[in-house]
Amino acid sequence: MVIRELSEPHEFAAFSRLEAEIWGANDPTPRALLHVFARHGGVVLGAYDGERLVGISLGFPGLDREGRTYLHSHVLGVTPEYRGRGVGQALKRAQWAHAERLGLPYVGWTYDPLMAPNAWFNLKVLGATVADVLENAYGPLDDAINGTLPTHRFWVCWNPTSRRPDDQGEEATLVIPENVDSLRRRDPDAARRQQEAFFSEIRQRWAAGWRIAGVERDSSRVWYRWVRRSEERGGVDEN
Ligand SMILES: CC(C)(COP(=O)(O)OP(=O)(O)OC[C@H]1O[C@@H](n2cnc3c(N)ncnc32)[C@H](O)[C@@H]1OP(=O)(O)O)[C@@H](O)C(=O)NCCC(=O)NCCS
User: How far is ligand 1, taken at its centre, from the CA of residue 153, in Å?
Assistant: First the structure.
């Protein structure tokens, strides 16, 4: 398996096809934009097994709320039969190498906090940090993964060379519900209620100064580990 930077029209066409397959969406990133990103400071990557494209990622420089330039990662996907073999991590490391070449301090992206495999991949396998909670980040996407649900997201930042923040303080947990995927397919109304209940808990904790310290799992469950440092509790109580 090799990771390559894509630059040719047929490679961008293959990228869009794979993106549409993975997300079951009919509006993958426009090919013209892939050209623009690849030529103007972004990084469009493909993971190849021989001639077959099995994984994709798209990153480009963005400005965060503090006005710092970072590498925004918009797409990361691996074709289903190649998942769990290190392809996602390899694509992410190649994105980080691009960020480092440009002197950028971190790679930032969003993920759905209800997706336990993604939580594990982002927070445990990569060691990214949840830096913000975004309400309906993209509006409803109407694709195979998200359906018509609001797109509530965690905003994560990743710099594999930096130390994780100290997570001493008051602790709590929040278990990610099981069978989120199948409920979304089977019963969209129940999935919407499940999402609202879960996200409302996240919203309240975040507003009260709790932060995500990591994710843990046992044989049947995956849960977020929360921490509230004393100065954050003090700050919230004073207001
Ligand atoms: C999330 C995704 C990019 C991970 O890529 P990957 O190549 O499967 O991941 P890797 O093999 O490098 O890493 C494996 C780790 O990721 C986790 N993982 C996340 N999603 C997984 C999946 N669908 N299948 C297998 N492992 C997955 C595994 O738990 C594993 O950790 P473990 O060995 O400690 O259990 C990929 O599963 C995917 O394309 N998912 C659908 C698209 C998506 O949700 N993209 C958004 C990513 S934020």
Answer: 17
> Would strands 107-111 and 69-78 be described as parallel, antiparallel, or unpaired?
parallel
Q: What is the pTM of this model?
A: 0.94
Task: Select from 13, 101, 99 the least CA-distant residue to 59.
Answer: 99
User: Euclidean distance between the first and final Cα of the chain, in Å?
Assistant: 53
Band (15; pLDDT cuts 50, 70, 90):
very high
**C-alpha 204: how far from chain center:** 21
Q: Which of 193, 173, 61 is closest to 119 using CA atoms? A: 173
Place of tokens 């445990």: 124
Report the atom number in ligand 1 closest to the C-alpha of 111.
48
For ligand 1, whether the C-beta of 154 sits within 6 Å is: no
